[in-house]
Amino acid sequence: MTAAEPPRSPSAYPHQITERLRFGDTDMQGHVNNAVFATLFESGRVAFLYDPEHGLPPEGTQFVIAELTVRFERELMFPGDVLVASGVSRIGNTSMTLGQALFAGDQCVATAHSVIVLTDLKTRKSTPLPDAARARFEALAIDA
């Protein structure tokens, strides 16, 4: 498996949130619009990165997304809830790759990977991941 192909089982992910689908998420085909998938992945990514319990990002820094790839597996239908599952698939010097999947019930409807870079708020340039952030990401790793 590569970073572009995260696991397709919810149990493979250490971080999960549930999002409620809205009627306004649907398009004229009657399914959830593909642009909404990116928003659902964003909700999971933000919950993962900015969880106050974990103290990320380090003070004076912020995370920025450098790349997002989404692979659509199945239609997603309203009404219902979707599970947004996330885990770290790669850790670099200044960045990490987040593997994610969306689940409707036990069905994987989409997967994604995001390259996320830590940047210095003053210089607006990438900065190395501190040891504490690296350790946190290692604890949230997935096999991808």
Automatic annotation (TrEMBL):
Residue stretches in coiled coil: none
One Pfam family it belongs to: 4HBT_2
InterPro entries reported for this sequence: 4-hydroxybenzoyl-CoA_TE, HotDog_dom_sf
Superkingdom classification of source: Bacteria
Keywords in alphabetical order: Hydrolase
Spans traversing the lipid bilayer: none
GO molecular function: fatty acyl-CoA hydrolase activity
UniProt entry tagged with the keyword Hydrolase: yes
Record family assignment: Belongs to the 4-hydroxybenzoyl-CoA thioesterase family.
Name used for this protein in its record: Acyl-CoA thioesterase
Taxon lineage: Bacteria, Pseudomonadati, Pseudomonadota, Alphaproteobacteria, Hyphomicrobiales
